[in-house]
Amino acid sequence: MTNALYRNARLIDPEAQTETLGWLRIENGVIAEIGDGDRAGGVDCGGLCLAPGIVDLGVKVGEPGERHKESFRTAGAAAAAGGVTTIVTRPDTTTPIDTPEVLDFVRRRGQEAAAVRFLPMAALTKARAGREMTEIGFLLDAGAVAFTDGDHVVADTKVFSRCMRYARSVGALIVAHPQDPGLSEGAAVTSGKFASLRGLPAVSPTAEKMGLERDLALVQMTGARYHADQISTASALPALARAKAEGLDVTAGVSIHHLTLNELDVADYRTFFKIKPPLRAETDRIAMIDAVRDGLIDVICSMHTPQDEESKRLPFEAAASGAVGLETLLPAALRLYHAEQLTLPVLFRAMALNPARRLGLPGGRLRVGAPADLVLFDPDVPFVLDRARLRSKSKNTPFDGQRMQGRVETTLVGGDIVYRRGAS
C-alpha cells in the first residue's frame, strides 16, 4: 500500500456536496487526513479535480464464454483509464453466472486479472430463463453482491415474487430491468415519428412504466430490496417517486447514454447507437437529468456492453444491442457539468457514493478511513475520441469521433496507482 500526499487539488466531496481547494493524505491504502488550503510536499495536483473513484454498477465482461469481446484484463484496464475503481459485473455471460462454482471461477478470474476492484452479481433464475430461482443463499455466501437476470425480464410474476420473498429473507439485493417483455420484444427504437420514418420496430415508453409498476407492487408485497438498473422515460418517474415516498427499499439507475444521447442520434441506422432500452426522446433525456439532480434517480452507470464488429455491422434491426462505456463514462458525464446541468458533487454522488452505499461498500466517498480509491482528472481538457485507442477489446462506442472534454490523469485503488496518463 502506497503512502502519499496529494495537494493543491479541487476536492469533490459527494457526501457534503462540496468542492474545495485542499489536500488529502493516504496511509496504508486508506484516506488518513483531509484538509483545506495548501500543504508542503507531496504531489502537486495543479488545481485538478480529486474525487472518489467511480463505482460502476452493471458492467458486462465476456468471461466466461465471450472472451473475444471483453476479458477481465481489458475491462480492468479500460476501467482504470476511465477513473472507475470498482466494477460490479452482470451475470449475462454465455455461461450464465447461476451456480456457486461458476461464480467462484469468475470471482477468482476477476481478482487475478482486473486492475481495479471487482464485485460480481449472480443470476436471479437458473440460466436466466425466468422459471426457477437460483440458490441465492449459497451464491450470496460465495460472494455475489446482488442478483439479476439482466435484460431478461422475469415475466412470470409468481416466480419473481418467490425470488423477492427469498431475497428479502436473506437480505439480498435484486437488480431488475423494468420493461414489459411482451411490448418490448423485438423492438429496436422508441416508438414515435422518428421510428415510423425509419421503418424500425419500436416500443412505447409505456412498456417501461408498466414493468416498473409491476416490480414496485411486488416490492411493496414482499419487502424486498430492489434496484431498477435503468430508468429512461419520464412516464416511469412518478411510480418511482411514490415508492420512495412510501418508504420502500428502492433505488434506480440511469445509463450515461440515456443522459447524453437521444433517439435522433440513431440517424441513418447507426448501430453503435442501438442500446437497450433504446434511446429516448429529448424530453425524456432532460427528465432523467432533472431526476439525477433531485436525487430521484440514484445511480449513473455505463451499462458497459461490449459487442464485436460482426454483431454490430448488421442491419439496424438485426444488430446486437449495447455500447462500451467504462472509458467514456466520466468524459460523457462531464458534458452535463459543462452544460451547467449537473455539478461535479452531484455527478459523483450518482457515480460513486450512491452505488457504494447501495452495495454496502466503504468506498465512493472522501472521508478519513475510507479506501483510497480516487480519480484525479482535468475536467476541461478537450479531445476527440478515437475508438481504436480504447482499451476495451470491443470498440462499439457511440462517441467515436466526437469532441469530448475532460480526461483522467491518475487513478488509484487502495492508494496504489493503477493508471497514469502517458505511462506505458
UniProtKB/TrEMBL annotation:
Residues 50-233 form the Dihydroorotase catalytic domain. InterPro entries: Amidohydro_3, DHOase, DHOase/Allantoinase_Hydrolase, DHOase_cat, Metal-dep_hydrolase_composite, Metal_Hydrolase. GO terms for cellular component: cytoplasm. Residues 340-419 form the Amidohydrolase domain. It holds the Pfam family DHOase. GO terms for molecular function: allantoinase activity; dihydroorotase activity; metal ion binding. It comes from the Bacteria. This is Dihydroorotase. It comes from Rhodophyticola porphyridii.
